[in-house]
Amino acid sequence: MRSLIACAALAATLSAHAAVRENVVIGGTRLYKSGFFQCALRTRSSRLEEIARMLSGAAVTAEARAAAKRLMAEASAPAKKARKRA
Prior knowledge:
Layout: E1 2-3, H1 8-13, E2 18-27, E3 30-41, H2 44-56, H3 62-76
Antiparallel strand pairs: 1-2, 2-3
Helix pairs in contact: 2-3
């Protein structure tokens, strides 16, 4: 399943993350697109894996997972108030 969001930094800030997959039907030696789609909400661990995949490409590395964790942690942390300048 692929994400609708292509930007890892944006995906990390969302409160929910959905994945969409198009169903494909095999007929003989050909693949036919059925026109039906599946949509599922991702769990926290599958969100982490998907964001890591967005960051690193096809092969997800430990470094990409750590970066995805940091992005998700930063996004869920309360925003700091800007200090007023005198």
